[in-house]
Fold each of these.
Amino acid sequence: MYPKADLIRRFVAYLIDSVLVAILSIIPVLGPIVGATYILLRDGFDFGFMRYKSLGKSIMKLEVVAFGKENKQSDFNISLNRNWVLTLAPVISIVPVIGTAIGVFVGVIVVLTEGIKIIIDSNGRRFGDGFANTQVVLASALAEK
């Protein structure tokens, strides 16, 4: 395990990704699907500056470390395992009227639960990290090892 990543950086990274998804969600029908797909796969992209991390993590200089893998980098499979729980709310929200209300409720519960887990866990691991055997760390922590 690595030292716990700075909580403010993690929050800002999540906020950046959430704003991106909110902007995408404005697009009728396709927007929420693209947004949920981004959340699901965000730690597996291998685009220039987004090397196996989300846009928010890239900007905040955070990395996803995958334990038990030789390259210790995230990929789409790891991202799916880390982030599926975060897509529950958008998927539920697809159902007209009642889905939106239930989706908002589920989203709040999931974000609060995951956030509290990050705060109380000694390594800053949320439940998604447990599912994928990962940890979010400062990029500089990887350079030191």
Amino acid sequence: MRDKLIHSAEGQRSFVVVLDSGEEAMACLQRFAEAHGIGAAQFTAIGAFSDADLAYFDWEQKTYLPERIEEQVEVAALTGDIALGPDGKPALHAHCVLGHRGGRASAGHLTRGRVRPTLEIVLTESPAHLRKRHDPETGLMLIDLDASAPSTPINEAPAIAP
């Protein structure tokens, strides 16, 4: 894993993180977030995996159903966020679309992805820290806006005359 800070201003940092063949995407992102003290961020990525594990949240069962991908796939889209979990550590949440040979796609919650040959990630830190909490209805860890740092009010746009 290689990373480079490409922008820093007013409490917001942007990084490029490049993973190489054989590295596991989610584990590397977790290590990166912990090493750089990332408490809130969003990220996107493209690249490819030799194999991956996705999960689909089944509403009725309130559990993730796994799907194993055991072939070379393109990471057509990967997007996610980082927020501090209840233990104070960065908690990752990522969804991705994987393209198979012939144009078929798989999508879901990314739990593991083995990089081959590269994964290029752009990560932008938020100045306000996000907190996650356990949601009893879903059983999931969701962003809790009430526990997050207050945001700066946005000036209201002027009314548009008809």
Amino acid sequence: MFREMRRKKQLLPQEDAIAILEKGTSGVLAVIGDDDYPYAVPISYLYHNFKIYFHGAKAGHKLDGIMKNNKVSFCVIDQDQIVPQKYTTYFRSVIVFGKAKIMTDEEEIRNAIDILAIKYSPEETDDSRKKAIEWDFKQLCMVEISIDHITGKEAIELVKKKNEICNNYT
């Protein structure tokens, strides 16, 4: 169903791809937009239990796209180091394919937004975080992406560097 990566040597192990999703703070969500044009928008997100969560307003382009077709892709760039003398970049990224749904269960929404708030404001107290969530809760729309497929890839130079390090320890 999903394409196999052409440059298999650059494929990140699943654990590495998940680690990138866990530590990342922003990515680009792509949906089918107006007149079937792709619509890609940067978002802050949370990866939790093989799902991606994000919040926003209760109306807008991305929600219209999700309601039209719930199949989405989501990309996170972990590294993008330009190496001008070699005319390349040393990159590491992850692409997720999945199905998005607008969450409706209030308990699930509260749980997801609480975990997201802990990620982005870990120094806040429980009381402070709960007050902030309550303040905006009625205007809040939470979206959950159930992941169907994850692919991580890195520059061949990074693969070679890791292999050199591993070979030095054996």
